[in-house]
Amino acid sequence: MPAKTVNAIAPALGVGSKVLGRYSLDKAVYIAPALVPAEGSNKTKSKAANMTNKITGLVFNCYSLRRRMRAARVGRFIRPTSVVYMGAVLEYLMAEVLELAGNCARDSKRKTVKPRHIMMAV
Length: 122
Known about the structure:
Elements: H1 3-13, E1 19-20, E2 23-24, H2 53-56, H3 62-71, H4 80-107, H5 115-121
């Protein structure tokens, strides 16, 4: 949204006139992009959770993790933040175990991590 349009809306919202992008310089007021449609279209942005690997920064696929949580009947509703948090915890634990298993493989002069090395690491 251009600053000109936001500056026109700003006085009606009680926000100062110095607005850059979506943030105000006078008061800490955030204009949600879902409430203000993009210029030239009548559509609002989707409120669906964006759990892509690019945004979360995880290696785990959050969508498949949420699908598995639903299949396991973890709860009636599964929030996207809980899926991302669980994915981060699982990724951390996996990295720690694989690091220890790699050390065990190196100690036994192997270049490949095998199930025995994982068992020794645990």
